[in-house]
Amino acid sequence: MEKQAEKTNLRALTPYAKGVSFDVAFQLVKERGVRIISNREADRILVETDVWKSVREAFPIWTGTMTAYAEPGKTLGSTVEYTDSESKLTWVLDVPSGFRKLTNSILVAEYPHYEFERKGDRIIVHPESGKLTVVENFPTVNGVYAYDENTRIPINQKMECDSGNKHRHLWRLDKRVGPVARGNVNIGCDYGRRDVGLYGRPSDRLGVVGEVQEAQEVAQKLAKLQLAEGMAADATPELKRLAETTKPEAIEKLSELIRALTGQTQ
Hints:
2 domains, alpha+beta
């Protein structure tokens, strides 16, 4: 399949080598005012384009797609709970009444349309009103499947691995509340890029990819420049005092640092 070429505003906010748990990733994107990409967006850039190569250092990544599913064959019930075996924290999502009798279904909320709060050893996920959706016919076992077009989450329609762009590889647990993870790009083919990770612990350390708007990126660079200029101005009196007590070569090195920070040239 020919890959699409396109301009992108995606940035590797956290490389996988310095990966973070999902709660840290969530706080990171909120503080920076960027949008963590969804499973659907991650799926598209991993399978249909070569955009992922520009942020390769971030993969595997957390996506902003929060999910909850119950045991195979059981109804979703009033709540879905999942305990992270590493952190020992239990992630909880209260199920709206209209979804409680559904079986073999997965609930989906997309960033930024949910929050979560910690109460003791429980983390409660709070989707915005009307922003929680459901994907029915969710597979009960791991395997190769077709996918729901809106979310790119696998659905229970078996596929072959040579079915072009139509198949995805599902990895699930018995039950779980947590975000979708994507992008094992180091396998050497596109197999890992088709993996849909619905089995990882939220405490696992993964990378983060966010979408940064051009105007926002310019504003961030301007803010850094203004900060550097302010630091340079504040340092002027100190340089005068240093001139009286410091060797000339040391002063020159400090001056070079200030010029580099402010973008000045000699």
